[in-house]
Specification:
The protein is an all-alpha fold. The protein contains 7 helices and no strands. The N and C termini lie far apart (43 Å).
Length: 128
């Protein structure tokens, strides 16, 4: 594990190892990227960087486009209500973003685990 802080620049350049990038850092980097870029640009750059990170780690199957886009959308939506908040304040206001089960509100586990969800963004399941 590296002692260097994870910055958005290091993240985008592919300098962060998957082992040094827990979920909280995923959310923080998404927050930082969305502060600087619009949603479409963020989806493009964040997806590209995460896919590269997974490939570099020898685990290309770990990248999931649906999970990536869904989390970016949630973070972007929540940021609209927390104008000007730094990441610490944002995290305190949105603790559910750090729960592994958050997307189960909209997706069945088997849908998120599908090969199609890894390759393409899937719309959430219709209400049950």
């Amino acid at each position: 594990m590296t002692s260097d802080p994870i910055t958005l620049q290091r993240f985008v350049r592919g300098e962060i190892a998957a082992a040094d990038f827990p979920h909280r850092e995923h959310v923080r980097m998404a927050f930082e990227m969305l502060r600087r870029h619009d949603f479409a640009e963020s989806v493009l750059h964040f997806s590209h960087t995460l896919r590269g990170m997974a490939e570099k780690a020898g685990r290309p199957q770990a990248f999931n486009q649906t999970i990536t886009v869904a989390f970016l959308a949630l973070i972007a939506q929540r940021m609209e209500g927390a104008t000007g908040a730094d990441f610490g304040a944002f995290a305190e206001l949105n603790p559910d973003l750090f729960a592994g089960s958050l997307l189960r509100r909209w997706y069945r586990p088997q849908q998120l685990a599908s090969p199609l969800a890894s390759r393409a963004f899937l719309m959430p399941d219709p209400p049950r």
